[in-house]
Design brief:
Length: 350
């Protein structure tokens, strides 16, 4: 087999862009070993497809219903056509049947699984990069299935790794706030957060929205009469720089949490999906973030006093920065690729 990687992941306004973006980090690390990667999707936003192209990766659309037998069969056919050595699957609809078909085709499989969604596992490797990752989530697994658990395997893209060793300056009083709530944000939580910050007159606020955000025009209208200086960035390709600029972030409790931790940026996190709840709770228990909960009325109303407290607490922000950087060292993508290669060597020698 060649050193080609097939990555099966989807992105849309409904499901967000997180699955594809973290797989992009893995593809970049795989390419560092001399390999190539092809992204296969049944759904993909135009903006994200353009991002993959700009990164030098091929992407292809599969005319299938996600998670079906046909989905797995077409993915396996693509892998054979590309003479691929591995398939990487990232999506909550890619369950046991998908795994079985990929393995029956003689392919090696890495499955990204955040909370035990598949219930039973026959993949070669199962990756859960979250703090709450535990082997008990994957009790029904084949003898050959190996687990990669915890932030030791957090997938960070190359643009973040260039900031390894960078030292953050912690101001006595924080003034710069970064708002980043995912690539799609279908419920316009970003708009609610902006409204909750309306009473602050001395903040600089940068709001990051994805190209698939359906509320962009509404957000642009909302910021016109705000007291604080608010800038909206669409399809940001400089997230590390924005995180370095900011003193505090308001973010969703997904994969962005590991980027914020790596950059040492204190954050207040909202739970925008059920599978993020454990992440948010674990981050708060480690002192890395402050959890706001689901974006209901109570959470939004409590945001202003909570962020006011963080802005003025230099000692707390310093500690959050230190704890975050200890949590994520930036080597996760390389570790996962090494585990894939070690597994390939082991299987070849059996």
């Amino acid at each position: 087999m060649s050193n080609c990687l097939i990555i099966r992941a989807d992105a849309s306004a409904r499901i967000g862009t997180g699955h594809v973006m973290r797989c992009l980090a893995l593809a970049q690390a795989w390419r560092q070993t001399g390999g190539s990667a092809v992204f296969a999707s049944s759904e993909m936003t135009d903006a994200l497809e353009a991002r993959l192209t700009s990164e030098g990766f091929q992407s292809t659309r599969l005319a299938v219903t996600p998670g079906t037998e046909e989905d797995a069969t077409k993915t396996a056919e693509l892998a054979r056509h590309q003479n691929a050595s591995w398939v990487v699957a990232d999506g909550y609809h890619l369950g046991l049947q998908f795994q079985q078909i990929i393995k029956a085709a003689g392919l090696r499989l890495l499955l990204l699984d955040d909370y035990g969604h598949a219930e039973e596992y026959v993949a070669d490797l199962v990756l859960n990069q979250n703090l709450a990752a535990d082997a008990s989530l994957y009790e029904k697994r084949a003898p050959h299935t190996r687990l990669l658990l915890g932030t030791r395997y957090a997938l960070l893209r190359e643009e973040f790794l260039r900031w390894s060793g960078w030292k953050r300056e912690i101001p006595a009083v924080a003034r710069k706030v970064l708002v980043t709530l995912g690539g799609s944000d279908p419920d316009n939580v970003t708009g609610k957060v902006i409204q909750s910050l309306a009473g602050f007159s001395d903040l600089e606020i940068t709001v990051v929205v994805g190209g698939s955000n359906p509320h962009l025009e509404t957000l642009q209208l909302k910021i016109k009469n705000q007291k604080s200086k608010i800038n909206i960035v669409v399809n940001a390709n400089n997230m590390p720089e924005l995180m370095a600029w900011a003193d505090v972030a308001i973010a969703a409790g997904g994969s962005t949490s590991w980027e914020l931790a790596f950059m040492g940026l204190p954050s207040l996190v909202l739970t925008l999906a059920d599978n993020q709840a454990a992440i948010c709770t674990a981050l708060e228990s480690r002192g890395v973030s402050i959890t706001l909960g689901s974006p209901n009325l109570d959470a939004i109303q409590s945001l202003a006093p909570k962020i006011q407290a963080v802005l003025s607490e230099h000692e707390q922000r310093t500690l959050m920065c230190t704890l975050g950087r200890h949590l994520v060292d930036g080597c996760g993508s390389a570790r996962v690729v090494q585990m894939m290669m070690d597994h390939s060597t082991y299987m070849a020698e059996k």
